[in-house]
Amino acid sequence: MARKTAIITGSTSGIGLAVAERFAADGFAVVINSYSDGEEDHAIARDLAARHDTDVAYVQADMSKPDQCRRLVAEAAERFGGIDVLVNNAGIQHVAPIEDFPTAKWDAIIAINLSSAFHTIAAAVPLMKKAGSGRIINVASAHGLVASPYKSAYVAAKHGIMGLTKTVALELATSGVTCNAICPGYVLTRLVESQIPDQMKTHGMDRETVIKEVMLDRQPTSEFATVEQIAATAAFLASDAAVQITGTHISVDGGWTAA
Ligand code: NAD
């Protein structure tokens, strides 16, 4: 039987890499992606393929560029004969007060965190509809549901992807294709590490105080979520058990958005 295929955008580190690892472990053929085209990117694919005895390809595509988003889907489908799961994960962050927020950062965050999902979904849907099945999983955020100061672009993009998720789910409701979001709270990845210096500056705090009082203060469990927990949630949404789950989200945020 042919392997099912999963594409994960932005998957050379953090949550995306853990999701790729999980789908490889579950026997999927996996397409991993980032914007660079270094030897280390291809080495990640080779390593996953060898450890999980499956097919893994690295496809370079910059998720800030509409044509490259669409090319990623086309290349994946051509290589593995179809797309069963599309995980829109690529994302960046910038932290600054609204009046100082650089326009170029706003544009990049909207392009990578929101518009890329529009383009990959638009390219994948005809293939999924034809197959009569498919799973679209958007890695949103607790910031898709609630806001925090100094993250105007990120919060706007993540709220946007929640709307996109619901709209696509309704359009595809009778097609066998589901579309859902995962809303992580804080997960200690490169993206979060890189916010700590800015948060220290903005709040006038040291590293430990930012982690405790700005980040984990929002999570009632006082613990980071892990990349493996986000990957397991994606695997569940891709499973047969989740076939009637569409147009919604699963929060993995230690209770953040319950408050
Ligand atoms: P990360 O920085 O470790 O990973 C981001 C990935 O996206 C990397 O592989 C990077 O190469 C890739 N990427 C960045 N720009 C790209 C571009 N232009 N084209 C293609 N790929 C690009 O960060 P992460 O924490 O693993 O974040 C992954 C997703 O999870 C993001 O959408 C983020 O908003 C979301 N998220 C993260 C957290 C958290 O606390 N870490 C919480 C909620 C949501």
From TrEMBL:
Pfam families: adh_short_C2. This is 3-hydroxybutyrate dehydrogenase. Keywords: Oxidoreductase. PROSITE patterns: ADH_SHORT. It comes from the Bacteria. Belongs to the short-chain dehydrogenases/reductases (SDR) family. It comes from Nitratireductor mangrovi. InterPro entries: 3-OHbutyrate_DH, NAD(P)-bd_dom_sf, Sc_DH/Rdtase_CS, SDR, SDR_fam. GO terms for molecular function: 3-hydroxybutyrate dehydrogenase activity. The keyword Oxidoreductase applies. The keyword Cell cycle does not apply. GO terms for biological process: monocarboxylic acid metabolic process. Its EC number is 1.1.1.30.
